[in-house]
């Protein structure tokens, strides 16, 4: 894969991540279930931060890339501890499993195990996009495209 293709892929995946995460600001319902509940009032800053770090990545070269990768890492770790940790170990740091199951009871799920928390569709896609954005940003060139890549 050429440098320009890696950079383009990183930009596309980061934009998709931001668009997907923006759904959580406004919420998406499908009938009685929801893909994600809206949380703009409480969590708007968490849309602003990755947007800003992405802009820094696009404009500051190596420094921006490091800042954006650091944010994506912290974001994934937080998401992992908030979701997958509960699925793997049956308990977690952020409330009890029953509370988590109850909170996400009306969301769209790919897997529903009675008495066990498994991340819903929205969070599975979010976590995959965070990882994909991280990896693509990591392997993308720091500066723009050189003439040899065209």
Would you write up a description of this structure?
This protein has 150 residues and is mainly alpha-helical. It has helices at 3-26, 40-43, 45-59, 62-82, 84-89, 97-103, 121-139; strands at residues 28-30, 33-36. Strands 1-2 form a two-stranded antiparallel ribbon. Strand 1 and strand 2 (33-36) form a beta hairpin. Helix 3 packs antiparallel against helix 4.
Q: What are its keywords?
A:
5% strand, mainly alpha, 150 residues, two-stranded antiparallel ribbon, disordered C terminus, 7 helices, 2 strands
Radius of gyration, rounded?
17 Å
- Report the biggest beta sheet as strand number plus sense, adding barrel if it closes: 2 strands, antiparallel
Q: What is the end-to-end distance? A: 12 Å
Number of DSSP strand runs:
2
Strand content: under 5%
Average pLDDT, all residues: 90
What is the helix content? Answer: 55-70%
**Strand order within the widest beta sheet:** 1-2
Model regions low in confidence, pLDDT < 50 over at least 5 residues: 144-150
Class by SSE composition = mainly alpha
The rough form would be described as elongated
Q: How many helical elements?
A: 7
The ordered H/E elements are HEEHHHHHH
Secondary structure layout plus pairing:
Layout: H1 3-26, E1 28-30, E2 33-36, H2 40-43, H3 45-59, H4 62-82, H5 84-89, H6 97-103, H7 121-139
Helix pairs in contact: 1-3, 1-7, 3-4, 4-7
Summarize the structure.
This protein has 150 residues and is mainly alpha-helical.
């Amino acid at each position: 894969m050429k440098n320009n293709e890696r950079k383009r892929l990183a930009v596309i995946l980061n934009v998709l991540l931001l668009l997907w995460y923006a759904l959580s600001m406004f919420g998406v319902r499908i009938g009685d279930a929801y893909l994600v509940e809206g949380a703009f009032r409480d969590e708007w800053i968490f849309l602003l931060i990755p947007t800003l770090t992405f802009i820094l990545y696009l404009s500051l070269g190596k420094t921006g890339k490091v800042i954006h990768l650091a944010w994506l890492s912290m974001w994934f770790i937080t998401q992992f501890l908030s979701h997958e940790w509960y699925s793997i170990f049956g308990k977690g740091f952020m409330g009890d499993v029953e509370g988590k199951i109850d909170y996400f009871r009306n969301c769209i799920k790919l897997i529903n195990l009675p008495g066990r928390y498994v991340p819903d569709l929205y969070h599975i896609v979010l976590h995959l996009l965070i990882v994909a954005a991280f990896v693509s940003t990591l392997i993308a060139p720091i500066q723009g495209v050189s003439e040899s890549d065209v």
